[in-house]
Write a structure and sequence with these properties.
Helices cover 69% and strands 2% of the residues. It contains eight helices and two strands; from the N terminus they run ββαααααααα.
Length: 170
């Protein structure tokens, strides 16, 4: 994947993680928009970000040797420490967004744009694992991604103020 940082990580990886981090944060902000600082927003955005990696790693390391590890791990050759490391890295990225108060302006961007950007970046690795019939990777990814719509529904049912409370009094 081209030149690397510190002889290990291709330049494109941090760039892609930054942009996918923005999308993940934007999706998470749509759920936790009523809270100024939210650990929940950080945890969910990091979860959304690493969920992408759960589809990406089987496609780009198990099926094609775009990246390899010295010792193979249990998740299609990916070490669990790698996934935990990316979750922690994602958390630090999201914490940086929180400290920069990105949540004050990111809510002005329609959520569907973040979802569309995320989906556009998910299509290739998802298509690869589907074509290779890596059903376990597809199932694990689907389960991880399902957290987001469940939280959207939960928010609409329990966290959002009732519609009647938002209507002006006569």
């Amino acid at each position: 994947l081209g030149p690397t940082l510190f002889g290990r990580v291709p330049y494109l990886i941090p760039v892609s993680w930054f942009f996918m981090g923005i999308a993940s944060y934007g999706i998470s902000e749509a759920i936790f928009s009523s809270v100024r600082f939210s650990v929940g927003r950080l945890l969910l955005a990091s979860w959304i970000l690493v969920s992408w990696d759960l589809t990406l790693d089987p496609a780009m390391s198990h099926l094609a040797p775009f990246w390899t590890w010295n010792e193979a791990g249990p998740y299609f050759g990916t070490p669990l420490l790698n996934l935990a490391g990316w979750y922690f890295t994602g958390f630090l990225i999201m914490l940086g967004f929180e400290l920069l108060r990105v949540n004050l302006w990111i809510g002005r961007i329609p959520t569907f744009r973040f979802v569309a950007f995320y989906a556009a970046n998910l299509i290739l690795p998802l298509g690869i694992v589907l074509a290779a019939q890596l059903w376990e990777a597809v199932a694990i990814s689907a389960i991880c991604f399902s957290v987001v719509p469940v939280l959207f529904i939960f928010r609409r049912l329990f966290w959002a103020p009732p519609l009647m409370a938002q209507l002006p009094a006569d």
